[in-house]
UniProtKB/TrEMBL annotation:
Coiled coil: none annotated. Residues 93-107 have a biased composition (Gly residues). HAMAP family: UPF0229. Pfam families: DUF444 (PF04285). This is UPF0229 protein LLY24_09290. It comes from Halomonas dongshanensis.
Length: 429
């Protein structure tokens, strides 16, 4: 009989298996509650869990009962008020706002039941937040260094650790050695047996007892030599040899480009920061080999640290092409497209010098987009789109699969737009 023992650590009085089954069963309710939680709380507060409530009627279990069965004839007493087909009015004074007493809601004379509530852990909450999201068009690139390797078999060797011993090859080596070592001894033994048999066939008068004793001693000595040959020797052992083989790596770099010009109000900057914080949390959770490059720009662009990207107060005019040129220079210097998956996420209010918007389009079409896997542009404005949006629209037409544009009006649009931009897509061949 086979016994299966689940040794996964569970909290006290809880079962991990049953909890996962419960989360999967009520995934639709939980996902809706998670989306509402994301919209009403700060993105910087995303890493804590969430309390989820499910209506009691949605967790009721089906109940099977035996009916009376058979044919029955029942005579019901009549009355003076109602006839067949009359509609009976609902009795007054029962039920209140919300759920009725019969469904678990409280009435003015009885008791009710609250909705079923439970708490999602941090990991469970983030799993629902980022469910179905992935970096689009992630491709396998040649490895630029030997950081990612795979140990593969590279033949056999006489030295190694016991865990890598090749039993089959070792037994074949031992068998071959025994055959090679026994062959001359068996040949000599066969000759000695033939000589002994010939000597014993002679006439007793011509038989030589000394020769017979000598042959018997020789036969005994040869048999001992055969028995002394070991079944397996350390010389026979063979071990699997492993070698480090470089593997293709899913390396990616995400460029976070944010407009910090004077036209970007504090509310616009807060929305952009929350979008990038959500993006950063998403990348950090799902990908180990993703590097982030932060670029701020007004009339000039600079590569900055994460802290300066979110909290610096520097401002000025708007020249978006300065940021795109800087991104292109960083790619050429540090991130060759043959080795890296390149992604750009840009947040702006759409304000830009008219002449510069054309320059941005040319930079994207001629230099950036041929090397990028994906470009996501988020315009944070409640107003009509300006020249930058219209020039980017021509780029989106030319690179429909790898260029996406969305508009954010208020903070509540951040999460739906984010899910739309980074929903899981089929990779291009």
């Amino acid at each position: 009989m086979t016994y299966f023992i689940d040794r996964r650590p569970n909290a006290k009085h809880k079962s991990a298996v049953n909890r996962q089954r419960f989360l999967e069963r009520y995934r639709k309710h939980i996902k809706r509650s998670v989306e509402e939680a994301v919209n009403r709380r700060s993105i910087t507060d995303m890493e804590r869990g969430e309390k989820i409530s499910i209506p009691t009627k949605d967790i009721s279990e089906p109940v099977f009962q035996h009916g009376p069965g058979g044919a029955r004839q029942v005579v019901s007493p009549g009355n003076r008020e109602y006839l067949a087909g009359d509609r009976i009015r609902r009795p007054p004074g029962q039920g209140g706002g919300g759920e009725g007493a019969g469904e678990g809601g409280a009435s003015n004379q009885g008791e009710g039941a609250d909705e079923f509530a439970f708490t999602l852990s941090r990991e469970e909450f983030l799993e629902f937040v980022f469910d179905g999201l992935a970096l689009p068009h992630l491709q396998r690139k040649p490895l630029k260094s030997l950081e990612e390797i795979k140990m593969v078999r590279a033949g056999l060797a006489r030295d190694g650790v016991p865990s890598r011993i090749s039993i089959g090859r070792s037994m074949r080596e031992a068998y071959a050695r025994r055959i090679a070592m026994r062959a001359p001894i068996k040949r000599a033994l066969r000759e000695a047996l033939d000589a002994l048999e010939a000597e014993e066939r002679k006439d007793p008068v011509l038989r030589n007892p000394a020769r017979i004793n000598e042959l018997k001693e020789e036969i005994a000595r040869l048999e001992k030599r055969i028995e002394a040959i070991p079944f397996i020797d350390t010389y026979d052992l063979r071990y699997h040899q492993l070698s480090a083989q470089p593997q293709p790596s899913s390396q990616a770099v995400m460029f976070c480009v944010m407009d910090v010009s004077g036209s970007m109000t504090q509310n616009h900057k807060d929305i952009a920061k929350r979008f990038f914080l959500l993006l950063y949390l998403f990348l950090e959770r799902h990908y180990e080999k993703v590097e982030l490059v932060f670029v701020r720009h007004h009339t000039a662009a600079r590569e900055v640290s994460e802290e300066e990207f979110f909290y610096s107060r520097e401002t000025g005019g708007t020249i978006v092409s300065s940021a795109l040129s800087l991104v292109n220079g960083i790619i050429e210097k540090r991130y060759p497209s043959a080795q890296w998956n390149l992604y750009v996420a840009q947040a702006s209010d759409g304000d830009n010098w008219d002449d510069d918007s054309t320059t941005c389009r040319d930079l994207l079409v001629k230099k950036l987009m041929p090397h990028l896997q994906y470009f996501a542009y988020v315009e944070i404005t409640p107003h009509e789109h300006q020249s930058l949006w219209h020039e980017y629209a021509t780029v989106a037409d030319a690179f429909a699969e790898r260029f996406a544009m969305r508009q954010i009006v208020e903070a509540g649009d951040i999460y739906p737009v984010f899910r739309d931009l980074f929903k899981r897509r089929l990779s291009t061949p």
